Amino acid sequence: MPPLPMTHPHKTIVFDLDGTLVDSLPDIISSFQYGFTSLGLPAPTDAEVRPLIGHPLEDMYAHFAPAHAASLCTVYREHYARNFVNRSRPYPGVVELLRTLRERGYSLAIATTKRTDMARRFVEALGLMPAVDYVQGTDGFPHKPAPDVIHRALAALGTADGLWMVGDTTHDIHAGKAAGLRTYGVTWGNHDAGTLATAAPDEIQPNLGRLLEHLPPLPRRGPPA
């Protein structure tokens, strides 16, 4: 991780990872299904898995096979760790957007349901680590829609305040609202516009482009008098 920057209130943007910055659903779904086939269980279809993405992994497996959830999680984590960038790529324009926001003076955090160690490996493998200031996963505390992962990301950057939470699911939107941030729902991930609308985000857009309209360059701080 790069050194943590000196931050100021209300200049941090928090992003979800999967389905928001990165098109990772094919690798997640295939690894999820692999757990079933490896244990000789019938695997759910893509359409059955997709609505559950964003929930804790244990809950996703318990939905289909509660008696095998622990074993399925173990298989998934081993398989996903070897295959997590087979098809996963940043969405178009994401790298440029993150760079532009950094140049405009904003601090950028990722707050994800992935475990922190896996999230950081993933961000590093996709070349996004230099474009963000901090990556926070969910380790032993409540998952979104609880705001805990957002609070921890903000605290790690030295502030209790942020500007926007950007995500692709209603869980992201509810978590952002609970953390006191404005919320931006992007529809190229897991939840469509109609589903996102049920959480009443401040913005629903097909991509991240409009975010830049809300975030002009911050005034540069001059030298001490």
From TrEMBL:
Q: Does the keyword Hydrolase apply?
A: yes
Q: Its pathway?
A: Organic acid metabolism; glycolate biosynthesis; glycolate from 2-phosphoglycolate: step 1/1
* Catalysed conversion reaction: 2-phosphoglycolate + H2O = glycolate + phosphate
Cite the EC number.
Answer: 3.1.3.18
Which keywords appear in this protein's UniProt record, sorted alphabetically?
Answer: Hydrolase
Q: Name one GO molecular function term.
A: hydrolase activity
Query: What Pfam family is a match for this entry?
Result: HAD_2
Q: Enzyme class, one word?
A: hydrolase
Q: Which family does it belong to?
A: Belongs to the HAD-like hydrolase superfamily. CbbY/CbbZ/Gph/YieH family.
What is this protein's record name?
A: phosphoglycolate phosphatase
UniProt organism field: Archangium lansingense
